[in-house]
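The record is given unchanged here:
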Amino acid sequence: MSTSRAEHPRIIITSGEPAGIGPELCAQLTSVDLPPCELHCLVDQSLLEARAPAGTTLDRLTVVHRPLSAPSIAGTLDVRNAAYVVGLLDDALEGVKRGQYDAMVTAPVQKSVIAASGVPFSGHTEYLAERCDTPKPVMMLVAGGLRVALATTHLPLRRVPDAITQPLVLELLRIMHADLKNSFGIKNPRIAVCGLNPHAGEAGLLGDEELRHIRPAIDAARREGIEAFGPLPADTAFVPREMAKADAFLAMFHDQGLPVLKHAGFGHAVNVTLGLPIIRTSVDHGTALTLAGTGRADVGSLRAAVELAIDLVHRRRATR
């Protein structure tokens, strides 16, 4: 791989929870075809070598060694390594901010272990946004041409209705519009907005969030030149007829939009954070503790995350 930053994007990968499949997926990247890039990986060197599939050579991967806090056993969580995992994120983020790397790609972490260590942590998206002083990040998953962003992310379902407000939805539409144009190269993005309630509230009979918050936000966005439409009943928003009209969807909560996307592309979908000053992509799956160390983990989503990061780097460079 070239060492010229001007030629090839420099991608820093965090290897994630050491007891999960992240380290072995990082090792597998050295055996797949990728667009020209420089791959760097934050990981404990010994851990990476131990989890690499038999016969894997790691010469295409520049290892940035960070020592584990405690020995790691595949499939067995250890809260002592929570600081190690968070440190990988911090180091990668600082490297991108300094211009040492062009984008960061994250392997999965175990949120519960990090939280148990005393670090407030509800997910990569929220953590990186706080570290970047970004007031409103947007989680969007991509599977081929299907793009689904979330109005709320890792939030208990009973708290979702109170979180859906007109200012929030309008802000999200602005961020989606800007990033779809500037990062994804879509000249005039069309954004379909899901309702919160069954049948999108059915004129207030089944809930009035659509009338009080979602539709006014869509109307305000359209006055700003954003091509948003809806609110659509979520149970029919993703039928082929509606999908053909949209470049991206805004779902109101995590399990409204992501089941559809993961059905369409699980194992090959990518999580991308909109609204950050940096490029960050991630896998669409968790730590898969039962697969860790078995050699059966599929590298498809991590590969797709790296490929999308490379593409976004090139698109941003082209607009400068």
Observations:
- The CA atoms of residues 222 and 282 lie 31 Å apart.
- The chain has a mean pLDDT of 94.
- The domain at 1-134+276-320 is CATH 3.40.718.10 (Isopropylmalate Dehydrogenase).
